Amino acid sequence: MNRFPSVFGRNHPGALKGEIDRVFDDFFAGFPAMSGWSANATGNQPALDLKETKEGLELTADLPDMKRDDIHLEIQQDRLMLSGMRNQEQESTTDEGYHVKERRTGSFRRVVALPFAVGDTANVVARYDNGVLRVLIPRPANPADNTQRVTIN
Predict the structure, then answer these.
(1) What average pLDDT does the segment 95-117 reach?
(2) What share of the chain is helix, strand, coil (3-state, %, to 5)?
(3) Which secondary structure element, helix H or strand E, spans residue 2, and what is its range?
(4) What is the pLDDT of residues 52-66, one digit of tens each?
(5) Mapping DSSP to helix (H, G, I), strand (E, B) and coil, where does residue 70 land?
(6) CB proximity list for 123: less than 8 A, separation 6 or greater
(7) What is the pTM assigned to this prediction?
(8) What are the E-state strand segments in the chain?
(9) Which long-range contacts (CB under 8 A, 24 or more apart) does 136-139 make?
(10) Which domains does the chain have, with CATH numbers?
């Protein structure tokens, strides 16, 4: 029996939201301007994958043309926050002559629910290479079982 619920399990609190997001992502995947980076009210959202392994979690995020210093990664308990700013050089001409313009600029923020709390980030490994961010989050050695029975009066 697995001590940690699957990231994609039905009983996980973020499962329904994840399924709804997946439906919309799949729908918009056919539109070139929407693939990779999706436009929404909060800015540009990078595509990412979160995979559960025996060792822990592997997060992969596509952040093309971004500088390492423009990416911010933070873990708070059972939440991973990925944010950053994607800049594009400004052109000085007003008559740009574009037929198609799909590259986006602006800030983004993604918050991902993790299936376990990360107490110490010292063993978390993050690498950014060729526009791809890879984050390895090991499972906690002694996971705290925060389940407590509540007496019903």
Answers:
(1) 80
(2) 15, 35, 50
(3) none
(4) 999 999 999 998 888
(5) helix
(6) 138
(7) 0.60
(8) 37-40, 43-46, 48-52, 56-62, 71-76, 79-86, 106-113, 125-129, 132-138
(9) 136/55, 136/56, 136/57, 136/58, 137/56, 137/57, 137/58, 137/59, 137/75, 137/80, 138/55, 138/56, 139/4, 139/55, 139/56
(10) 47-88+106-141 (2.60.40.790)
